[in-house]
Design a protein that fits this description.
single chain, 490 residues, Rhopdopsin 7-helix transmembrane proteins, 3 domains, 3-stranded antiparallel beta sheet, two-stranded antiparallel sheet, 59% helix, disordered C terminus
């Protein structure tokens, strides 16, 4: 669900570079006059021409001490803020179009926050991620040492990582909308990218049933962590909004595609479970109910979040209500987060049932082996395929007698079941799966290699910043406002 959030950030990045309000002559004259009249420290304005500067006799307010000390509003940034609203009020009186400044609408400071509603809704987005964190943490504590025997706990840990990334991202978003500084902006973008990667990591691991291969799951996790580290390094060396946009959209779209594929996978499993006569209807679960929870919900989430993106594409702003499309978008992302974690929990509970695992194993184990027979002989009912097929798991009398033969990148096994020997390869065992041992490592390597190519070649090397910081007028990047400034008119 974080793709749309990232897209909104990146749309904002694009708008920052082309805000028409920044280049208005009257806005520039106003900031010059404010800095000169207030004798702002570090200002390079030593003189203004009273005959050409219409703002020379405007009475500008001093920065409130609380804002200057606590929220780092200096004289120059506060002049920028005051002039935004002076120009905006003047354009409203003249019935002219309201312009953006530095990529943002001219918001008034409310309780010290630059974008009040965006801040409130960002805090609202933090809540479902925190609730998800509590739920997944409780499951991990309840399982305790059982997670060593139940490799499905890998999924819960992956979902826990998603909640942590979400909490960090929305905390950074709240701080960023409260006070727009370079450091808060970068943290907002970094953590937004982290949520996209953790979401991709969790859904990909779930869809491919990677919990059956703990070692491969660890390698995949390390690969995704390396991708994020390279991503941060790339931005640190040469910050580029274009590269950041492409990186996040790439993994965000993958996340949407994986959710749809996961929905189809669940539908196929439920239908097969019904045909096998293993679906058990309870007071809390029916076949149609499971179809809705496991198949319809993820597709519905993709549709809802995609439609809500139109709020960003058709940007609008109400100066009277001090709310814009971006704030409403933050409001629209609260519900999908609640539902997404509920879906993760429902999906985790479903694939923990014996009948669902039999469906999974029957898809994985080739004829003439029977999935239920293999499950019956499996070590203490574990669903860890690497454990079931490990030499230490079986005895000569237990029914399984694995014979390892080193082949070209994979193993061959010979299982003895009821005095009959079945020879098959790992590639046969995971037939119908998306990957096997070799291809999983290969895909991880290709993802790393692709991201590295993107960072070096796809995006032109440029130091794209919102402003030319070498110039005096762009030594700051502040917006927001106090209600008392509304009365100022030209």
């Amino acid at each position: 669900m974080r793709l749309a959030v990232v897209v909104t950030l990146l749309v904002h990045c694009f708008l920052v570079t082309c805000s028409p309000g920044d280049n208005l002559d009257e806005f520039i004259d106003c900031t010059y006059a404010c800095e000169y009249n207030r004798r702002c420290p570090n200002s390079q304005i030593n003189y203004i021409d009273p005959e050409t500067n219409m703002f020379h006799d405007i009475e500008f307010f001093d920065t409130p001490p609380l804002y200057s000390k606590l929220l780092f509003w200096d004289c120059i940034s506060d002049c920028d803020y005051q002039c935004q609203h002076i120009i905006t009020r003047w354009r409203i009186d003249e019935e002219e179009e309201i312009y953006q400044f530095h990529g943002k609408w001219p918001f008034l400071r409310v309780l010290g926050t630059q974008e009040f509603f965006s801040t409130i809704f960002s805090i609202g987005n933090f809540i479902p991620h925190y609730k998800g964190f509590v739920k997944f943490s409780r499951i991990i504590r309840e399982e305790g040492d059982r997670r060593r025997k139940n490799s499905r706990s890998i999924l819960i840990w992956n979902y826990l990582y998603v909640t942590v990334a979400g909490m960090l991202a929305w905390t950074a978003s709240s701080v960023f909308h409260c006070r727009d500084l370079i450091i808060t902006e970068k943290l907002d973008y970094f953590f937004a990218g982290l949520t996209v990667l953790t979401g991709f990591h969790a859904i990909f691991a779930r869809m491919t049933s990677m919990f059956l291969y703990p070692k491969i799951a660890q390698a995949f996790t390390a690969s995704v962590a390396a991708i994020f580290a390279l991503h941060i390094l790339r931005l640190y060396v040469d910050w580029s909004y274009t590269y950041n946009m492409r990186f996040n959209i790439f993994f965000g779209v993958l996340q949407y595609i994986l959710l749809i594929m996961l929905s189809c996978q669940n539908y196929h499993a439920l239908q097969k479970q019904k045909l096998m006569g293993e679906f058990k209807k309870t007071a809390y679960s029916s076949f149609k109910g499971q179809i809705f929870k496991l198949c319809v919900i993820p597709i519905l989430l993709v549709i809802v979040t995609t439609m809500a993106m139109s709020l960003e594409l058709f940007d609008f702003f109400s100066y009277e209500w001090q709310i814009d499309a971006h704030a409403l978008w933050h409001l629209c992302t609260i519900w999908p987060s609640w539902v997404l974690y509920d879906f993760f929990l429902e999906d985790y509970a479903y694939w923990g049932s014996e009948s669902a695992l039999n469906v999974l194993w029957q898809r994985m184990i080739p004829a003439p082996l029977d999935a239920s027979l293999l499950r019956e002989h499996a070590f203490q009912g574990t669903n860890d395929l690497s454990t079931v097929l490990s030499p230490s798991t079986f005895t000569d009398e237990g029914g399984y007698k694995p014979v390892l033969k080193y082949g070209l990148g994979y193993f061959n096994y010979g299982l003895v079941i009821d005095d009959e020997v079945y020879d098959y390869s790992v590639c046969d065992i995971i037939r119908g799966h998306v990957y096997d041992h070799f291809w999983c490592y290969f895909c991880c390597f290709m993802i790393l290699f692709t991201i590295w190519l993107i960072s070096l070649n796809w995006c032109p090397s440029s130091k794209k910043s919102k402003f030319d910081w070498s110039k005096k007028k762009d030594d700051f990047k502040m917006e927001g406002g106090d209600l008392e400034y509304q009365h100022v008119k030209i």
